[in-house]
Amino acid sequence: MGGNAFAIPGARLSIAEYEALRVHLLSRLDAFDPIDAAPYLGSKASHGDIDVLVGWDKAAWESGKGHGMGRVNKPSTNETSLRSALAAAGVEDVSLATQREMIAVWSDTVAAQIGGTHWSRSGGQVSVAVPLKVVHEAVELYAPGKSLSAADKLFRAPKDMQFEEFAPSSSSNGAQTTVTAVASKSGRNRLSDNHPFSDLQPNTFVQVDLIFLPPAGVSFQRFAHAYGVTILLLSQLIRRASSCRDFVLQGHRAVLHWVPYPGCPKAEVHLTHEPSALCEYLGLSYEKWGNLTPGTTEDLFAWFADCEEDCRAAKGLSEMAKYGLVGGTYRRQGGSSRLSALDEFGDWLRRQGWVPEKKEAKVEKSQKEIEAEPAKDEKKQDPLSRVHPDSPRPLPSHHAELVRYWGKEAEYTAAVEAIRPFAEQHWAGVEKRKARTERKAAEADANGTLETSDKVGTKELVPGCANICIAS
Predict the structure, then answer these.
(1) CB under 8 A, 24+ apart: contacts of 94-98
(2) What pLDDT is recorded for position 458?
(3) Which range is least confidently modeled, 169-173, 178-182, 358-362, 364-368?
(4) What pLDDT, in 10s, does the model give residues 103-112?
(5) Which stretches does UniProt call biased (Basic and acidic residues) (predicted)?
């Protein structure tokens, strides 16, 4: 949630504090497996929050839904494991599809286990406010040379802590917590008294984001979200390498989207959740990634550019080399520091000799070629009235190539079939509206003819002519 889940500024963590808190979190969340944290650049001096990737067998591949927030009501104890705490609360079998009240109890129990005092849930992500007191004790417990036995596992129940204890202070090893701007001149938050976060004070806590994923998706999430900007660079690279804007990353997997029936839900095909498979498709080395310890973004850039000239990644990099050029820069589009990484990458690629790919001049097509070419313009969708449920829009060539490469023909067919009922419902509505329009048009024609007949019949007849109505 970018460190802003509580609408109140929290403190930033030094590297020593971040690492100590990470060990604390991994030791307390014993009910989940695997559990990990995304790596960060060696040059990073502080962290505004900490993301923990949590493998949970009840997490779905689809993005979670629903929201919630609350204060921790029942603190845990040092002797209580998370499994025991969840069982005692009667929420060991909760999933994101469970009733909201039960998910709230589950979120409260998990937050209490790591020493949190408040929590906020958005889909499959639960953000927890962990007091700085917990962080500082973690630094003392998990400093080099300290025992990591079960008896030393950190926990101090929230009910035993007072908020005035949480003021930023130096830890025993000299690492200083970074204080962010306060929410008001008085240093207090501006939330109403009945808000769950009304007693949460600025700079007294650290935000911990627990991202719950299917266990098989944790490694992909760790890969894609490493070093802060990997997800941004990788997302742009796969689109350009495949020439398909509908080939996207959803955090813990790579998927393909297509709209076989305009106006209906998209067909979504899960291509892979294996980072090694995605790297192989692009022509990058996942083995080298495993040995990577980049200190700066340029070290990360070098891994992306370490590929053969004829691989898919090289094609994508040639297109990305245009980033940062006048007229095609993200620096001129609002100044997002995150998007500016694309400009930095483009600048770096050009310095390394990558030449921006030039678009070839378009060759005029004959009328015969145009008529024979399948519909592959992703922006121009056929009107719904022209897409019959039995004739979905065909996959464009680049989409079809991806489906074939990953061997997902059956999955794509099943995805289209799942959408067909929506298309049939829409089609029935279209036919009904069409029939109604035709009926009204026929009635209008009939009324117009009748009116004409009446007018002709009332006219004064010319002497010597037969009494014949035009309408007859």
Answers:
(1) 94/58, 95/58, 95/59, 95/60, 96/58, 96/59, 96/60, 96/64, 96/65, 96/66, 96/123, 96/124, 96/212, 97/60
(2) 43
(3) 169-173
(4) 999 999 999 9
(5) 359-391
- 85 token code pair: 């705490």
Chain centre to alpha carbon of residue 468: 76
Half-sphere exposure of 349 (CA within 13 A, CB side): 30
The structure tokens listed for 282 are 């692009």
Please calculate the CA angle 131-132-134 and round it to the nearest 5 degrees.
Answer: 75
List C-alpha distances in Å: 447 to 2, 444, 450, 451: 65, 5, 5, 6
Q: Which residues contact 420 (CB under 8 A, 6 or more apart)?
A: 261, 389, 392
Q: Residue 402 is encoded by which pair of tokens?
A: 């991806």
The three-state secondary structure class of 218 is helix
Question: CA geometry: angle at 46 spanning 51 and 153, to 5°?
Answer: 55
pLDDT digits (tens, 9 = 90+) for 186-218: 445 567 778 888 888 999 999 999 999 999 999
Strand, helix or coil for residue 250: coil
Whether 132 contacts 168, CB under 8 Å: yes
Provide the pairing of β-strand 205-213 with 49-55: parallel
Most confident of 52-66, 198-212, 446-460: 198-212
